[in-house]
Design goal:
The chain is α/β, with parallel strands linked by helices and 363 residues long. It has helices spanning 3-32, 41-63, 65-77, 80-105, 111-133, 135-145, 153-158, 166-171, 173-179, 191-201, 206-224, 243-254, 263-271, 279-285, 356-359; strands at residues 161-164, 186-190, 230-233, 258-260, 276-278, 295-303, 310-313, 319-322, 331-343, 346-353, 360-361. It is elongated and about 115 Å long.
């Protein structure tokens, strides 16, 4: 039984009782007047009681659970620095409004009665806005007063938050990328992503269970690495069940990118205006550039789909299709690049063997 349902029942009972007494009082007052009334006070009591019960069922959540849920959502998504700066600005604004209220109240009516209240609203708003807009400067001043080193605005701007998807944690390459320092800021892992990772690790399927446990090990290694800032958060998105949808909505609310290697999540997020950092795109970007005519050393490990083709792989996983390479299986051969094909799944290199008398190297 949810709290909203309980509050609906309580509101129905309270407003029903109140409506009953109110209807009874109205009926008695009408009976005492000279107006001839055909309805008895009991009829008024029942009618107003039922009306009160109806209003109690409908309106109770809008004055109890719904405002509390909205405040909870607001404070959950609000940054701690912004919240502290808002409270400080509100306090300073109310103090200034209290000091100004006395002389303003001496003005002739109606200014002396209205302007103090208007002053409270204006000074509170100005105080909040001033402290929130200059919050980083204020924290730098406080940090320097207590012996800390103030950070510049540009340095503070680099400390961004990046949301991590389940797939990129399981992939594992984020550990090496983050360790190199090419991912600035902190890596935020919401609780629902961690729950999905745990669900995969507890799966009955052996392959999924192995992938989930590898993700847990990667996450544990990132937490132990002092060079990587990892934050686990209980922040959630109400009314949404799918993890990918929650990540996109959360990224829009926090105005931060999503780090993933999921192609579908990448496209959905881009369509909704969310920036995506794709590990696969990063891996393709840092691969060595090869041009047609260059020589390279590759080990042919299997046959290709076409006749006399051989297939090998570079150290970064790039597939190399060798023309007439069937005779060189399990051999390292120097080949000449003929074409480089970039696809959504990665990069493919087409090549042909060079001069076998000079370039072939037996395995």
């Amino acid at each position: 039984m949810s709290m909203e349902f309980i509050l609906r029942l309580v509101g129905m009972i309270v407003l029903s009782i109140g409506g009953t007494f109110w209807g009874l009082e109205i009926g008695n007052n009408i009976q005492t007047t000279e107006i001839k009334e055909v309805f008895s006070p009991q009829v008024y009591a029942v009618s107003f009681g039922l009306l009160g019960a109806l209003f109690g069922i409908i309106l109770t959540p809008f004055i109890t659970t719904r405002p509390m849920r909205a405040l909870k959502k607001l404070f959950t998504h609000l940054d701690a620095k912004t919240l502290f700066a808002s409270l400080a600005g509100l306090t300073i604004g109310l103090i200034i409004a209290a000091l100004v209220a006395f002389p303003i109240s001496m003005l002739p009516s109606p200014f002396g009665e209205v302007l103090p209240f208007v002053g409270v609203i204006i000074f509170a708003y100005v105080g909040i806005m001033a402290f929130v807009l200059r919050q980083q400067d204020l924290f730098n001043i406080i940090s320097s007063m207590f012996g800390g080193s103030p950070r510049s605005t540009s340095a503070a701007g680099d400390e961004r938050v990046i949301l991590l998807d389940t797939s990129v944690i399981i992939d594992g390459r984020i550990l090496d990328v983050a360790h190199t320092g090419f991912v600035p800021g902190s890596l935020l892992i919401p609780r629902f992503v961690l729950n999905e990772l745990q669900y995969i690790a507890d799966s009955s399927d052996g392959l999924r269970r192995q992938r989930g446990r590898r993700g847990m090990e990667v996450l544990s290694s990132m937490q132990k690495d002092s060079a990587i800032v990892v934050r686990l958060s209980d922040i959630d998105v109400d009314g949404v069940r799918e993890v990918d949808d929650k990540l996109v909505i959360l990224a829009r609310q926090l105005k931060c990118p999503i780090l993933t290697n999921d192609y579908n999540l990448n496209r959905v997020a881009e369509l909704q205006g969310v920036r995506v950092l794709n590990v696969n795109e990063l891996a393709n970007a840092v691969k060595s550039v090869l041009l047609p005519g260059e020589l390279m050393n590759v080990r042919v490990i299997q046959e290709g789909k076409e006749q006399n083709q051989g297939v090998g792989y570079l150290d970064d996983g790039t597939m190399v299709v060798v023309e007439n390479g069937r005779d060189h299986i399990n051999q390292e051969t120097i080949v000449t690049v003929t074409k480089v094909l970039q696809t959504a799944a990665g990069r493919m290199i087409f090549a042909r063997p060079g001069d076998l008398t000079e370039q072939k190297i037996e395995a």
